[in-house]
Specification:
about 75% helix; mainly alpha; globular; about 0% strand
């Protein structure tokens, strides 16, 4: 990276442009009993790590694609990040305990149910012709 670019980034970060910490650290305070909050924090950290894992997988795929396929995959990554924000903003400890204790394929299901993903899926066959 050039010195000019590095200096610009350092200036931007020192002015508050960079987000400190992870999504988990910046997440809102959880509502619930002390035990529930502690339990939900651990679950939330695991959920965030799973979102990271899924995003990394999509990025690997996108890096091996060109054109429309890559654009579709990058759109899916954007959907994924929106879903992450939605989940991580939740303040109820019980939400994480009840809905995310066993992650399974929940992230995949969040993406599949999204209207933007459904549009991508619907348009794929017409673009392949």
């Amino acid at each position: 990276m050039s010195g000019l670019t590095t200096n610009a980034i350092e200036t931007w970060e020192s002015e508050g442009g960079a987000l400190p910490g992870s999504a988990v650290a910046m997440a809102p305070t959880l509502d619930g009993s002390v035990a529930q909050v502690e339990w939900a924090r651990r679950i939330r950290a695991n959920v965030n790590a799973d979102f990271d894992r899924v995003a990394a997988s999509f990025r690997v795929v996108a890096n091996n694609q060109n054109g429309t396929q890559r654009a579709d995959t990058e759109s899916i990554i954007s959907i994924l990040e929106d879903k992450r924000d939605e989940v991580m903003r939740r303040q109820q400890a019980g939400y994480f305990i009840h809905d995310w204790q066993e992650i399974g394929d929940q992230i995949r299901q969040l993406i599949f149910r999204d209207a933007r993903y459904q549009a991508i899926k619907r348009n794929r066959p017409t673009r392949r012709q």
